[in-house]
Amino acid sequence: MNLSPVTLPQLTRAEAPLTLAIEALDEHGHACDLSIPAERALTVYVDKQELITLMTLGAHPEWLVLGYLRNQRLVERVDQIESITVDWDAGDAGAGVAAVKTRGLNTDWAERTQSRIVTTGCGQGSLFGCAMEDLSQVRLPDTHLSQARLYEVLAQVRRQESTYKSAGSVHGCALFDGTELLLFVEDVGRHNAIDSIAGWLWMQTAGAQPKDPLFYTTGRLTSEMVLKAAQMGVPLVVSRSGITQMGFELAQSLGVCAVGRALNRHFFCYTARHRFISQAHLALASSPGAA
Amino acid sequence: MNLSPVTLPQLTRAEAPLTLAIEALDEHGHACDLSIPAERALTVYVDKQELITLMTLGAHPEWLVLGYLRNQRLVERVDQIESITVDWDAGDAGAGVAAVKTRGLNTDWAERTQSRIVTTGCGQGSLFGCAMEDLSQVRLPDTHLSQARLYEVLAQVRRQESTYKSAGSVHGCALFDGTELLLFVEDVGRHNAIDSIAGWLWMQTAGAQPKDPLFYTTGRLTSEMVLKAAQMGVPLVVSRSGITQMGFELAQSLGVCAVGRALNRHFFCYTARHRFISQAHLALASSPGAA
User: Complex ipTM, two decimals?
Assistant: First the structure.
């Protein structure tokens, strides 16, 4: 029995190197071998109309495009997309191409993407006009975050971040269900990382949707990050960085529990404290490096 | 005698608080008073046509709008702009409004902004299609960066960063002439910070243009940051963070000397080493904290 009546799109699994080896000169005048993250242009065509060019690390281009279309609210349901085909060698001047085929959506994409907000976020940083309008439709599950769970989540994140560890200069995002890590995505832009997670989530059958979702990001909690998490139905967001005023106010009004500066045993719970279960004795436990 | 024959635009000097005081819960279960950076929506109208909404800290909204128009190549010369009037209380839902009046440009802005690249950068992260096309026109001055100058620049940056120091979660950018700090700008998005610098630079008379410009940013050196620096005629870029592959390749091909991971005495010179004057003995000097 198939739990999901939805026909999922066909996705390629295009691959490309995520780091580049370079030589740099250090402060001692020595040549050093370094690894830096890739940054690739990916031009998105929807039904042969050029939509946008995203700059990405390239780890999960199909999920990225899918999540971009979802988070920008350009496509309403995942089954309206028939396929996403990524070819890293197809574009001009080294750009990759993502060809999205819809199931007959017949949209004038240029018109749809007219009104836009250019946001503060690292990464793609673009939200189309309607995104802020129907926030009232956001319904978040009534879940909680205990300090013990927070620490377990942070310990799992520390075991990830492979491109960051090898090359730096990328942002990581992760989606948890309870304390189970469902997906960890890195990208040169953190909005690409969260969009990739949104795309992946769209591809999961109804039965595989997280019951107790938590979103982690290495990047700041700006308005856009909080908004995108809420749009995915995630009421708990955790960041290694801080929060901005609009991220704070949006989290407050949506009832999203926003936790920032979360590193080792330290954190600040900024909003929706009714969702947070403080366990102060755990703050004094032994170094989490061993976790 | 006026050195500049250019009629500069009239700019307001709109002000708004840059930080917000909030209370958060820490890991010990204590309520803490924190300061977080503002993040404001600023909707830009050009000749009464809505162009875009930028999310900004709000420190220098007029320079930001001016630099945005410049860096997106939407306006060619600064004297084509008659005035920029910012009113933080004029928009819907708490958004500010920047009203740009041109000297009769008669442009269809919606059409001009059709093709765009959504970039990796923190911050506004949007470049319109033509920006990458005429890089061949970029001419950079034949200047050099000594290790001593680099350390002096870093020491001056350490004395700045006021919103960052008080509230975190903002990016800083600075423009130097030699070792003289001309301008330090912070914003929630680093592209806003560099755009504000580009706007400020456009407002300077010919005689006040830097002879030996250097651009510093706390953010990563992505393609867009390198591109914007080069478009401002700046051949030396320094970052506290790292570099991405496209930032690296772009800096290489433009002959921009890109220096990253620059903190205290450490750094990597990634590109255009012929511009860099290594002084390895300085790496062993006493702690720069005292500088």
Answer: 0.81
